[in-house]
Specification:
Elements lengths: L1 H38 L4 H21 L7
Length: about 70
């Protein structure tokens, strides 16, 4: 039973990492596309928010992996 719990715990951890990496990038894509459609400025906002989403995803991953802790 302990082995099954450990496997499910690892699967939950992997899912959390994946979602925390994808959510900011996908949010950046949608927000960038929406702003580009509002201001008719293809693809400036799309690329900017994809880049911001990637940065946020890696910052989240760094914090999740136990990076530098604030004192």
């Amino acid at each position: 039973m302990a082995k099954r719990f450990d496997m499910l715990s690892n699967l939950a951890l992997l899912s959390q990492i994946g979602i925390s990496m994808l959510a900011p990038i996908i949010g950046g894509v949608y927000l960038g596309r929406w702003l580009d459609s509002q201001f008719n400025s293809q693809p400036i906002f799309l690329f900017a928010f994809i880049f911001i989403g990637i940065i946020v995803a890696f910052i989240t991953l760094f914090k999740f992996a136990g990076g530098k802790k604030k004192s």
